[in-house]
From TrEMBL:
The protein's name: Phage Gp37/Gp68 family protein
Record organism: Caenimonas sedimenti
InterPro entries: DUF5131
Amino acid sequence: MAENSTIEWTHHTFNPWWGCTKVSPGCDHCYADNMARRYGHNVWGHDAPRRFLSDANWDKPLIWNNEAAAEGARKRVFCASMADVFEVRDDLARHRQRLLRLIDATPGLDWLLLTKRPHSIKKLLPIDYQFPPQVWIGTTVENQEQADKRIKYLQDFTTASVRFLSCEPLLGPVDIRRYLQPGRNGVRIDWVICGGESEHGARPMNPEWAESLLAQCQEAGVPFLFKQWGSWGLLNPVGDVGRHQTIRLARQDGTAVQLVNVGKKAAGRDLRGRQWTEFPVPEASRT
């Protein structure tokens, strides 16, 4: 079993609001929904209200931008861990416009905008709006169906510095080779994040799925970040698992692999004997 090691893949997290609606299998055990409920906020679902945060919260990225300028180093901001910026709701429109103004006002930050609704991005942006170079636009890809539905919409955005995939939770094998090569508009996927599920009821990730994504990225020269195994860790060699739940999964060559449900800290993030922590070089850092 891999030794635990955490990865700080972003420097800051900014949430303009809390709440969302589940749209695909990757949402089934949503950590953000569970966290909101632990805090007593019922903000998930089409009919649920969204929780809008204070002006003090909105001031934080301005402070982070000043700190980045003082340090002479760019900082990554994940937006939003507790929502989807491109959820289609009338009550989100003015807050999304405020977010776009905030992004424009913080050129020292790289904004990671991750959505399960890439088909909605263009219609929710102002007419003729173009993402500034500090924006990284990404979509969640948990299986092949969602890959083929969602990735093509990222190719519409030529001004975003980075287009990326979050293959987490990875629920099946995914072939993204064609998206790792320049497509229409001459853009491709620039970065791939991969990880397993870690909430209660987590579904195990076959190691072969993650290994395949790694191989595809290496072949195309695309940075790859393996974030975590999730709750189900790879037990190799097979040993005493005590009372932990185990499962055997089959590889394509017919061999079996055993996973054990030990929690994400113990499961760690080693893949093929090492940790993969690769990042793209954004356009804003090159200019």
